[in-house]
Amino acid sequence: MIDDIRFEGSAPLQQQLYQQLSARILHQRFPPGSRLPASRLLAADLGISRNTVNAVYDQLKAEGFLQSRAGKGIFVHEDINHRRLFEQQADTSPIASAALPPLPDPRLGAPAGTLRADGKACLPFSPGLPDLEAFPIRAWNRVLHHQESRLALRGYGDFQGYRPLRQAIASYLRSSRGLRCGEHQVIITNGAQQGLSLIADVFLQPGDRVLSENPGYRGARYALERHGSTLIPVPLKQQVLDVEALTRLGPAKLLYCTPTHQYPMGGILDISQRMALVQWAMRNQTWIIEDDYDSEFHFYNKPFAAIQGMFDNAPVLYVGSFSKTLLPGLRVGYLVVPEALVEAFVWHKRISGGETPLLSQATIAEFMDSGQFSRHLRRMRQLYRDKWSHFQARVTEHLSGLVTPVAESAGMHLVLEGAFDDAEVSSKLRNLGYGSTPLSAHFIGTASRQGLVMGFASANAAQIDGCVEALASVLSAGQGRA
Ligand SMILES: Cc1ncc(COP(=O)(O)O)c(C=O)c1O
What we know:
The protein is of the alpha/beta class.
């Protein structure tokens, strides 16, 4: 009679067994006076511990469902009053008697289509995804193993971030990106995404105006409009933020941009444009959010130094991430902010997620200090340069006349522009196992350009060939024509 007891889901076994046995008694599948298996047998049959069965039997005895008969075993209570038990059950069951409390307004939740619900976040060609297989996992594991037994990493950490990691980042940013900063200005975040959300927390009130590159990075847009601010699109000119257009757009509290590799169009803001941007920001009392998400990967020239370091006291909030340089799964990024704002940022970090895991931070710090981070970057730069060339060659070979590649020699993705329904084509590629995103999805309001954002870094040579051929056949069959 217990053959059909099944355990499913995450509820504790004890709770599940209690519910199933009591339901069978209530519905008289186990009639009064019937004998239940000994706890040892039931435990063995169900593959659970005898203690669990005993605890359930004890509870059912205490509630009057079961009784023990000395030397004979456990029985369903002879005098069980089913009506009373049913009533009791109905009275005490919150599901049966009470309506759910009101749900919050769903419009305050995620915009439609933004959750990664299909389990396909890491397909080849997913923008922003590094080559996961090329990651030096053995070297990393050695460092991780070295750190993982340290007592100092087992407790709570500093909300601002593990100091040796902040020191390593500050020194790396000063020498590689030209930042003017000390470790006291660095805040470790759970990815760049948390950095952007913290900027919104510290700076924005409902109704504030925020300027944002258009097309631009959606994660920034979502973070910066979440406190009810108004997002004003800033157009691009030759694939970079149109600095001259800023004067027509009025005042704003923040301006979000990706000056060293515009996301997604790939343009690089030159030195004179950078200077004009900082001068505009000073004049207009606007803070620039400089998202420096992948500037490590410039293939032929050294990237321009970050805007943050161009002037003393430039009004810049610098956002960085280890998602491209190491792994997105680490969820570690960083902010560099003016000293006077550190406390406010750390407070908001504390109340929205708390510390970043100490072991990951300590492992990254040792990886950087030992020189392995720089070595890894050099290898990845070479690898992505080869993939970039290979991808471009295949595009020229198979997609001429169908798409126009928009490509600086940098980064981990490029855009293939064209006159087709990019959402439809992207979804077709997705069904074939390739994870591009439609260019139109990166616009605020109506999209003026169509195309595909192709993250080539995560694809191997065979996948690059396969995807280009698949795209050629989708486009030349006229599927997805706009
Ligand atoms: C423009 C831009 N900024 C930041 C990020 C990094 O985000 P995170 O560090 O949260 O993974 C990405 C990732 O794709 C990006 O494309």
